[in-house]
Write a structure and sequence with these properties.
Helix content: 40-55%
Number of helices: 20
Oligomer: single chain
């Protein structure tokens, strides 16, 4: 079937199939991640990003191309999670610009869209790295611009572009040694190829254009027996035309269960809760508006616990200041774990966004925090390298005076805050805070989520691994032994303080035992033990 033009209706259907295709294949993309830690994986972040765009256009009644591409740009921009999601949103933003003002799309318009997508994404990244999704996008754009004058059939045009993109993807290990060592291609590039293949299938009518429900925000380790699950029903829904705000509704249902997440905007409130009484939760919700997208899963039956830790752990400390109209500074921090959240509260953080390793907050989550705080100057601490791009994207979308400190770990965020002086001007504070966090080393102890070989270390799934500054320094099967080896390989003569943040899978007794062992081995160091409550990471060490 020859296709020479695409109208708004077909564009919408094709994009939704592209989103569905990535969702179906996201675990394959996740498996390409080189580093074997339980992090916010590339496939998941890209899928959540395109899901946000697909949901945006699904709710657009118009078949006008301008409306649809603006919806794609807005939805992906606000829903972008992780570095891969932010880059994907910039690709969609550029592609949408190339399509604006068109009543129908032909190969010339599509080629221009590919070109603008690549240009926009490259400009959005401070130091573009070849061998990534950027390379695949650029080569797709170059092929599109090369062939559009000769090939007018959109099917053949896209097949040629995608095949060329696939070839570029296969070459990514030649551009990045880390990919070559692991024997994989770039995960982000693979995700992009899945999206493009899905869009082509949608244009050809090969796949359903019904947007699938994919709401797994967790990358938690599987737990044992269903008897461990305190609240058995994962319940999710949206209150449309809500007559209640999110904070009020959160209080109404908080005693029905745990893992509560209530977020809202305009007159819509989205709810997630683990409960033993989903009927009562829904009955309470019906008093506040009409319900849509209701989803209830019996987690005991599935023998899975998808608990979303700390979802209601975010704080809007503006409440402490009552009706205060002005603050000189406000702080926003990303953190996971109730103990770590307490540390940031004590350091005067105004708003804590729940997130980190397993769930990277979206651009929209960060914008919401920006809109809640009252400071003349706002300082954002991402505390994770995979959140920095989203934080900067939120900054660019706001008209507030915002500074994003590129903190990549919790200890860096803490060190930055300790260096803050309220009587100094903002520029001097940023300088001092940056200097402080750059001099802190971070150690982390977690488990491997896949078999791999890195730096001549053979790592098997579920091995305990010790990491410092992105390098795996110790591997074993005992948490304390791996921790001891990690710290011995990390500390230097000029260090004198080690702070141990222990996670929710470690008891206080185990943390104190580790501290005592360290005191015997490292007599010249002060050692502090702090409850962090973080998931997945047994220990986080701050070394100063």
């Amino acid at each position: 079937m020859k296709i020479e033009y695409i109208d708004g209706d077909l564009l919408k259907k094709a994009f939704i199939v592209g989103a569905n295709t990535l969702e179906k294949n996201k675990e394959g993309v996740n498996a390409l991640n080189v580093f074997p830690v339980p992090d916010g994986d590339t496939g998941t972040n890209m899928s959540l990003t395109i899901q946000s765009a697909a949901k945006e256009i699904k709710n657009i009644d118009s078949n006008n191309i301008d409306d649809i591409v603006k919806g794609i740009a807005k939805g992906s921009l606000m829903g972008a999670r992780g570095n891969s999601g932010v880059i994907l949103s910039q690709l969609f933003r550029g592609f949408s610009k190339g399509l604006q003002g068109k009543k129908r799309l032909d190969v010339k318009v599509l080629a221009e869209g590919f070109r603008m997508a690549s240009d926009t994404a490259y400009k959005a990244v401070m130091k573009p790295i070849e061998g990534t999704i950027l390379t695949v996008a650029r080569e797709c754009a170059e092929k599109a611009m090369e062939i559009y004058r000769q090939e007018k059939d959109i099917q053949v045009f896209l097949e040629t572009v995608i095949n060329h993109g696939q070839e570029a993807l296969e070459r990514t290990p030649e551009m990045l040694d880390v990919l070559k060592t692991a024997g994989v291609v770039d995960a982000g590039g693979k995700g992009l190829i899945y999206i493009l293949k899905g869009i082509l299938d949608g244009l050809m009518g090969k796949e359903s254009a019904v947007l699938e429900d994919y709401s797994d925000y967790s990358n938690e380790r599987d737990t044992d027996p269903a008897t461990d699950i305190k609240f058995g029903y994962c319940t999710e829904f949206i209150i449309n035309k809500a007559k209640v705000d999110e904070n009020e509704f959160r209080q109404k249902i908080s005693f029905y269960g745990d893992s509560l997440m209530v977020v809202g905007g305009e007159d819509v409130v989205k709810v997630h809760i683990h409960t033993n009484n989903p009927g009562k939760v829904i009955e309470e919700a019906l008093k506040s508006g009409e319900l849509i997208d209701i989803k209830i899963d019996n987690m005991r039956y599935q023998h899975q616990n998808k608990v979303l830790d700390d979802k209601e752990d975010h704080i809007n400390d503006n409440d402490k200041y009552g009706e205060e109209e002005y603050k000189k500074y406000s702080f926003i921090s990303v953190a996971m774990g109730d103990g770590i959240a307490d540390v940031f509260r004590e350091l005067k953080v105004d708003y804590i966004i729940p997130g980190g390793q397993t769930m990277n907050p979206s651009t929209e989550d960060i914008i919401k925090a920006i809109n809640e705080v009252k400071g003349e100057s706002i300082i954002i601490l991402p505390n994770n390298g995979n959140i920095i791009l989203a934080a900067n994207q939120a900054k660019d979308l706001s008209d507030r005076n915002i500074y994003v400190l590129p903190t990549k770990t919790i200890p860096q965020g803490v060190a930055a805050l300790l260096a803050f002086e309220s009587d100094m001007d903002i520029d001097k504070n940023i300088e001092n805070m940056t200097d402080a966090f750059e001099h802190v080393k971070t150690g982390q102890v977690t488990y491997a989520v896949r078999d791999t070989n890195i730096d001549d270390k053979e790592i098997n799934k579920d091995d305990i691994i010790g990491i410092c500054n992105g390098e795996i320094l110790s591997v074993g099967d005992d948490i304390e032994n791996v921790s001891m080896e990690l710290l011995k390989n990390t500390i230097e003569e000029d260090n004198d303080l080690i702070t141990i943040f222990y996670g929710n899978d470690v008891s206080e007794e185990e943390a104190e035992k580790l501290s005592q062992s360290l005191e015997k081995e490292l007599e010249d160091y002060d050692i502090e033990v702090v409850y962090g409550g973080q998931p997945l990471y047994y220990y986080i060490f701050s070394i100063e």
